[in-house]
What does this fold into?
Amino acid sequence: MKELKVEICVCTECVMKGAMELAESVESLKKVKKHLDYEGEIYIDMEKCLGESKHGEDSPLIAVDGELIKNADSETVMEKIVEKMKAAC
Amino acid sequence: MRGIYTPVTKIRRQVFTEVAKLAYEGGDYNKVEEIPFRIIPGEVPTYRDSIFVERAIVGERIRLAIGLPLYPADQPTYISNGVEESAISEKVYDPPLVNVIPFACNRCDETAMMVTDNCRGCLAHPCVSVCPVKAISIVDGKSHIDREKCVKCGRCRDICPYHAIVKYDRPCAAACGVDAIESDHLGRAKINYDKCVSCGMCLVSCPFGAIADKSQIFQLIHAIKSGHEVIAEIAPAFVGQFGPLATPGKVKQALLELGFSKVYEVAIGADQGAVEEAHHYVHKVASGEEPFLATSCCPAWSVMAKRDFPEIAPYVSDALTPMVATARVIKKEHPDSKIVFIGPCAAKKLEASRKSVRSDVDFVITFEELMGMFVAKGIEFGEMDGDEVIDDATAAGRGYSVAGGVADAIANCVDELYPDVNIMVDRAEGLRDCAKMLKIARAGKRDGYLMEGMACPGGCIGGAGTMLAFAKASTAVREFQNVSPDKVATKSRYVEAEEE
It folds into this structure.
């Protein structure tokens, strides 16, 4: 079974800068998997801080299959995930 | 747009964080002039045509976040005007609460029917045939609507086989349930304050971020810094708002770290109100003495109900709102403290300043504003050991934060206290639907009912000051309800204490 692991940093600054909304957009991809011909699973991990303490300049931080994205926004993150989905097909 | 982190959300939150930092740092408050340059750096505009306009708008948002009025665009002035004088431990509040920043407004047209590029100028053109006022003609091979004649009935839109006609609403006006959004002489949105009930839905719906409400965090931080005893009461919608690491116990701990001396759940007052309204329903409504009972906890709803439906006003519950009831409980135990209501709500800011009922609440801030304080102070939920205990309220009181929860809490009390009484319930969320429900009641079709009104769609968890999307927030509240050992409001120790 193919799977993608998305880790979202949920330190205070990342949450203020949109981590929860990023989680929503990652989750929304589960609903369009069919359109993207992806049959695997997307796992979202929101349990910890991904960066060094006080990484406010880089917030929000997100890692897609271990690949770190700084100053993440929903369009970049979804693009990266879809790219990984396609590579896995 | 709720649940999506847009540039509007980003700027709003940056302003709260920067204003909180400014208050914590103290010193020379002329440095407030630097904040727009931090939020809008560089020399190329990001959001609008001009970087100078971007910064001027941020300047206005900063003033509002400090509690100051907008500055007139046609007079020389500084952001810092009045900031030093506002650096006090008391609330600074000049009406109005909700403000349109005029030069940030995009002057969206008022409601109109519009023909889009989808129109193929088809042979049938049924849009022309169905129009009751002959407003549609075919011009240059496309459907054309004469706006002077159009009555916005929507029949052309409904009949078009290409979905080429849309009804367009100003987002602020569409979000306003009391039709308070009008236009000024330049076509910019203008709030009619005789109608506005400060629910805040326009400010979270404007895609240009042109509407903002005033905040009290600047003065609250000064109150805490001055060493005064400051106590927080936190509304039941708070669960999950500050991210997955911020469990209810850790939120309490974070508030203590900010310098609050105690933290109470507002659901205490909700429990008390549910029991009081259950008794009231049985003695007055079920007995036939009064036609119905409308809940009172949502201030935007109760103000609208009393003002626009005077014949219903006597039947809006006079039970204290959870915010005020909880503040009274706190004042009894800590008479010299300052009390801060932390919630999802813009309208509570006005309720706390109301003259008719002494609120005992010194400050009202939102979850989003509080998050600005957490960031400014460097509070990290992930670095906290252990969990504070937070166990003031029952599942019923905690449920007040979700639409339907108030009526459920009251109905369960009635079941518990008066098992023979059968309670009838109607409820509405969003002020437009609330008004519809009241019209039905006025027509005599809700006699014997308990009516729950919530100004925000979804209830308090959909409030203007929230951080978390609706579905997640509602799950979080339910989980927090489940961990309360007591399910019915009558079991609250505060209710029992009151009855003794």
Q: What stands out?
A: Residues 74-88 of chain A form the longest helix (15 residues). Residues 6-88 of chain A form one domain.
